[in-house]
Write a structure and sequence with these properties.
With 90 residues, the chain is α+β, with helices and mostly antiparallel strands. It contains three helices and two strands; from the N terminus they run αβαβα.
Length: 90
């Protein structure tokens, strides 16, 4: 990924796919990215505690229309995401 991460589901065909909470927990991502204005309340539910990134509060919320589709603001968005991921450390 341009921002320095790797998609835990990058092996799936297509740009996106529905995945289960069990599949997310099985792949054990280091960070969970969320599109929207705030961290979903669902992360407080017990079943999400199976995901290490959620337990460790390694959830990055991405706000703004620059995340909706590629455009002239994409390079800045990638740099901003890279900085957020760097703040979380290795």
């Amino acid at each position: 990924m341009l921002a320095g991460g790797a998609n835990a589901f990058g092996d799936l065909p297509g740009a996106s796919a529905p995945v289960s909470l069990e599949a997310i927990a099985a792949r054990d991502p280091d960070v969970v990215l969320v599109l929207g204005a705030s961290r979903p309340a669902a992360f407080g539910r017990p079943e999400w505690q199976a995901v290490r990134a959620v337990r460790e509060r390694r959830v990055v919320t991405l706000e703004g229309s620059e995340w909706d589709r590629p455009g002239p603001r994409t390079p800045g968005a990638v740099r901003a995401l890279a900085a957020r991921l760097a703040e979380l450390g290795p």
